[in-house]
TrEMBL record:
Residues 102-261 form the NB-ARC domain. InterPro entries: Apaf_helical (IPR042197), NB-ARC (IPR002182), P-loop_NTPase (IPR027417). Keywords: Plant defense. Signal peptide: none annotated. This is NB-ARC domain-containing protein. GO terms for molecular function: ADP binding.
Length: 381
């Protein structure tokens, strides 16, 4: 009898302990309601994206290292296709030829910084091949660094150009020692094109091997990242600006009308000048669009390109634009930091995609919905 009373009493205590905590129950209800609302919000957003995908024909695209292949460079180039960089070239050459601002054991570093496709490599090529620069330096070396920053490959490339033969050495220590001996006492110009790494340790491994060259030696770096210029201890930084519309037209016309008759040029040049305004100051875009127009002979074909958004071109043209313009620019896009709600106000991103965004003005299916908006989503999530 007593055991039965104790069981009843315990059950009442348990029941009362739950009934006596209304806050606990209320909190549980609120938390579950909040979770349900979040799930509903995410579900609605997924539905919105799915509808946009169907409406605008979005394709699932997974970037790979192969697809986003980083371009390689050499110091060889067609100077006749360059326009609008006389001022910058003069500044760079002047810095290369000037008296060293550093102590004898240091080398002045000049960094060219700017967006992909803006002409950093071309400017470096202009300076590298300048007659005065060639006469001034005993040795000139061009290395396309790119990503990843491979110290062994870079050292081998430097040594091969110094000795004009392929080095038999394999280890980084041996390579750097040989580099150091080969440049000792010589006035050297070393171009490091397309540098991405911000890893100071990697740069510090390479730098000491360059310390023995003669006073007046220079390192010229091109990079898309201001942080790289800071990391390597830049003495002179030049921020590369976009070209004028006139310069873009000049580049576009040089390529588009290559080996064409005077009659063809006169018949198509007015449309070509309008197409060139799509370049938004990027010489890479001017060259690619010019190359695209080389195969188009009729005025109707040129007008189609002028009136079409870039994604509205036929498959062959679209493939050329994607591979030669947008994939290289995506390297810069992926490397830019996320800025959340300030995406639209970020100058770097705005310049990078102004070309794409501007095409929406002519189309019934605006490009800002096709490309700009999905990119904005990716940056704010």
């Amino acid at each position: 009898m007593r055991d039965a009373e104790e069981n009843i009493h315990n059950q009442q205590k348990i029941r009362c302990s739950f009934l006596g905590s209304p806050c606990f129950c209320l909190n549980q209800v609120v938390q579950r309601r909040d979770i349900a609302l979040k799930i509903k919000e995410v579900s609605e957003k997924v539905d919105e994206i799915a509808k946009a995908k169907a409406m605008y024909g979005f394709q699932l695209y997974k970037a790979t290292d192969h697809e986003l292949q980083r371009p390689t460079s050499t110091h060889f180039f067609d100077e006749s296709s360059v326009s609008g960089r006389d001022g910058e070239k003069k500044s760079v050459v002047s810095m290369l030829l000037a008296e060293s601002s550093q102590e004898a054991q240091d080398v002045d570093v000049i960094s060219l910084v700017g967006l992909g496709g803006i002409g950093k490599t071309t400017l470096a090529q202009l300076a590298f091949n300048d007659v005065e620069v060639t006469d001034h330096f005993e040795k000139k070396i061009w290395v396309c660094v790119s990503e990843p920053f491979d110290e062994v490959r870079i050292a081998k490339d430097i040594l091969e150009q110094l000795k004009e033969s392929k080095p038999n050495l394999a280890g980084l220590q041996s390579l750097l020692q040989s580099v150091s001996r080969s440049i000792n006492g010589k006035r050297v110009l070393l171009v490091l094109d397309d540098v991405w790494t911000e890893n100071h340790r990697q740069w510090e491994q390479l730098k000491p091997s360059l310390a023995g060259c003669a006073r007046g030696s220079r390192i010229l770096v091109t990079t898309r990242k201001g942080a790289v210029a800071t990391m390597i201890g830049t003495d002179h930084r030049i921020d590369i600006e976009t070209l004028s519309d006139d310069a873009c037209r000049s580049i576009f016309n040089h390529v588009a009308f290559h080996k064409r008759s005077k009659e063809e040029r006169e018949r198509l040049e007015d449309i070509g000048n309008k197409i060139a305004t799509k370049c938004k100051g990027l010489p890479l875009v001017a060259k690619v669009l010019g190359g695209l127009m080389q195969s188009k002979r009729t005025r109707e074909e040129w007008e189609d390109v002028l009136s079409s958004e870039l994604w509205g071109l036929d498959e062959v043209d679209k493939d050329k634009i994607e591979k030669e313009i947008f994939l290289p620019l995506l390297l810069s896009y992926y490397d830019l930091p996320s800025v959340g709600s300030s995406f639209k106000h970020d100058a770097g991103r705005g310049d990078l995609f102004s070309l794409v965004h501007s095409q929406s003005k002519r189309s019934s299916k605006p490009l800002d919905r096709q490309l700009w908006r999905p990119m904005a989503w990716s940056c704010t999530t």
